[in-house]
Hints:
The chain is an alpha+beta fold and 322 residues long. It folds into two domains: 2-167, 2-Layer Sandwich (Ribosomal Protein S5, domain 2), CATH 3.30.230.10; 171-311, GHMP kinase, C-terminal domain (Alpha-Beta Plaits). It is built from eight helices and 16 strands. It has helices at residues 65-77, 100-115, 122-132, 187-197, 201-221, 224-243, 254-268, 292-299, and strands at residues 2-8, 11-15, 20-22, 27-28, 32-38, 42-48, 54-57, 60-62, 84-90, 144-147, 160-164, 171-177, 273-276, 283-288, 305-311, 316-321. The longest helix has 21 residues, at 201-221. It is globular, with a radius of gyration of 19 Å. The structure holds ligand DP6. Residues 13, 16-18, 26, 32, 99, 101, 133-135, 187-188, 278-279 line the site of ligand DP6.
Amino acid sequence: MISATAFAHPNIALVKYWGKRDLRLNLPSVSSLSLTLGPWRTQTRVTWGSYEDRVSLDGSWIEGSAAVKVLAHLDRIDPRRPPCTVVSDNDFPTGAGLASSASGFAALTLAACAAAQQDRSIDELSILARQGSGSACRSLWGGFVQWNRGQRPDGTDSHGAPIADQDHWDVSMVVAVVHDGPKSVGSTEGMLRTAQTSPLYQTWLDTAEANVHTAHEAVLKRDIQALGEVMESSTFKMHATMHTASPPLIYWQPGTVAAIQAVFELRKRGVGAWVTMDAGPQVKVLCLSKDADDVQRILQPHAQRVEVLRAGGPATVRVHAD
Ligand code: DP6
């Protein structure tokens, strides 16, 4: 019986993944680019060879669809696996608007492959993590990461790739939690509905790769304005496809719009700050770290809490012989 414990940070897409070209292999219709965020992280321990399958999440043993998804991921890693125990904990608040599925499936993949003594490259680990949850394939690396959509039908060219590590550039992501509560429609269902019904979806597809290219260049040049502008463009285009789906998908709450307006006002006063939102109401603001206090202050009146996050490092794993 071997156990392994992995740590992975969540990540936030600066240029978004939204839409799937293959549901079974979880292949994206567009490339995306993210920033791995610290200090928040998921810790996952996998014991390969226990007396039955068991899954614990944030301190409680769970059953139902979340446990089924975790165990199906272990089957993907080794279809002839023994029963396993998975214990996973996030040190960040749920509902904070950062997908715990990204750090969760990255840590699960890393811990399970190590516990199973599989010798896999980091690209193979990313491909596996992608099949658990798309955004997870970017959380294996620290700093700025690009996920190329790939062309191959088997998905072997669709995985994360590092652009610049966490020490490349001192940027912050200021997260305003404007509304607590469960997500109305999950990402997978939301993506399918958008692709099937939004008249703007084709424009989204047609412009995504150029956005990734612009963001990549901006990261390398440390050009916060260029990165902020393309990030906002990607987020508002994604939300436009959601808003024009049938029935419409509106993840925003009144606090979302208030926070966006506050950031626009701050920008008029000369502070470089740009917004992004995912499949939920929270507003996340990209800025240079020297401006993070100003951003935090203007978001406070519109939010239940505001957290300042920095670039995080790569996922890590260690093996223990029990
Ligand atoms: C809006 O990675 O959660 O956050 O692959 O269906 O598990 P699945 O989706 P998921 O979607 C993330 C969508 C997003 C944008 C992004 O992170 O790129």
